[in-house]
Amino acid sequence: MKIARLLALAAIGSFVGGAIPASAINIGDGGVALHGSVQADILFPEEDEAINTGTYSHKQLFNTYADLNLISRYVDAGVRAEFMKWPLPGYENDFAGWGIPHIYAKGRFKGFELTAGDFYEQFGSGFILRTYEERALGIDNSIRGGRLKVTAIPGVRLTVLGGLQRRYWDWHKKSQVYGADAEISLEQLFSGLSKRNITWTFGASYVLKHEDKTDVGIEGTDYILNLPENVNAFDLRSQFQKQNVTLMGEFAWKGQDPSFDNKYTYGKGTAVMLSASYSRSGLSALVQAKRSENMAFRSQRDMSGTSAFLNNMPAFAYLHTYALPALYPYATQAAPGEWAFQGSFSYTFKRRTALGGRYGTKLKINASYIRALDHKDPKELIPGTIAGTDGSKTSFFGMGKRYYHDFNIQIEKKWSRSVNQTFMYMNQYYDKTAIEGHGGQIKANIFVVDTKWKIDDRFTLRNELQYLQTRQDDKDWAYGLVELSIAPYLMVTASDMWNFGSTHTHYYNFGVAGNYRSNRLQLSYGRTRAGFNCSGGVCRWVPATRGFQIAYAYTF
């Protein structure tokens, strides 16, 4: 009865954005703990013709979540309630709804772990399987079914799973997902490796997608495609580490998988990635290369949107946190494929040297370079479409047009005990037509100065000044931010992103955020520019908005 009451309290709290009383979670001792959270993001939208917000059918839009997890030595259980009947702008129509989409029970005993219900899983880098939750992007592609993990053999980890994939408020009952993964840590099996400070792992994964036959016709003809019911995918990987050096390689292969993404062609998919890194005190370096082709992998072939994918192809583009460098974020081109290269270098000049100064200086250099494959369109079997063919032909090392590049250099300098600054210059190329379908090619130079002044133990003042110069798209932008932190509870911010090159529009924002114990409340008012919100190469279009926002989170 007590657990049922807690679930009810959490669900109610999620709908109204309130906290669960502390007394409600005191369930006593005995090796059992209850953890959870409540999150509510609410927007009171206002129409604004200057930024083309459009009209709204509801006066309040909100996304709310409540999680409860019961943890014990041998058994875990959890449930999540969600209420998004009128969700925040930018989510797909199917995102709207409410209910309890996530519930699970997990048992552990002597190296065996069995999960029944909803769960997330990733094999390797996610080339053939990655299910996860990313609320900012509206992604929750969990699997509902069963999973067994085995770690009873030292140095060996095994995973077997099967079930249905979630897409918003539906589970693909006409398609099932099955998978197996094995990983071996050689240093645990051979003592000679561990004595030489070597860790070396090998992994292999397999995923089977079974989808009931459906008729997919070619528009304007009487032809019906013969679609495979089963799609197989394999992944092999290895990682070697000795002291400061790490080497990693991974290869994935996917069988014939005609789908919405590849225009219903029958070519196979491949991905290969190589990575090398070195690190020691004050120095780190990383180089990576990836080639992928036809690796969009969905549990249902005719679905679109960000939540329908079984896998995830990581982006080889630096994830920027500053506003203007993130104005043109790169989204991985999984279906046609890409060649992607990334490198980073970091070095700290020691204190009391010519370049280090009194407090030291840190230098960071990052570069990303991404190009299309050299696609050669196949001969059409049916005039006007490539459906039914093996798809475009490519050579392994051949490259097509440039999608994106980003070169940026950052210098972090501490001038005194209370003042430090970060300077950044970035050169960016963004093929908006290839990535978004319109807009041409954008070449930009971006400058950032971030200053932090610790006034005393309680007050810290931070200021950002940013400038983006380009002759394309909306041309030049400027951005300014002032942030006052009052430890340990309060932070006040004011910012403005101004397009002075074309539209002369201001995107202002004012906010205050507070923390108290396990509660966090943020209030803000202002405008949001239309654009893409991205994470890990996956992007969601966010329309322009203006209004008052409330973000509340409570954890226990």
Overview of the structural elements:
The chain is built from 4 helices and 31 strands. The strands form 4 sheets. The protein has a 24-stranded antiparallel β-barrel. Strands 6-7 form a two-stranded antiparallel ribbon. The chain starts with a helix and ends with a strand. Helices cover 5% and strands 54% of the residues. The chain is mostly beta strands.
Describe the structure in brief.
The chain has helices at 2-16, 186-189, 191-195, 432-436; strands at residues 33-45, 61-71, 75-84, 97-109, 112-119, 133-134, 139-140, 143-150, 156-167, 170-171, 175-185, 198-211, 216-217, 224-225, 230-242, 245-254, 269-280, 283-293, 338-349, 361-373, 399-414, 419-431, 441-454, 459-470, 477-486, 490-499, 505-516, 519-528, 531-535, 538-542, 545-555. The chain is mainly beta.
Provide tags for this entry.
single chain; disordered N terminus; 24-stranded antiparallel barrel; 5% helix; 556 residues; 4 helices; 54% strand; mainly beta
Number of helical segments?
4
Q: Specify the structural class.
A: mainly beta
Number of strands: 31
**Overall helicity:** under 10%
Approximate shape: globular
* Low-pLDDT segments, ≥5 res: 1-29
Q: Could you describe the largest sheet, including whether it forms a barrel?
A: 24 strands, antiparallel, barrel
Termini separation comes to 20 Å
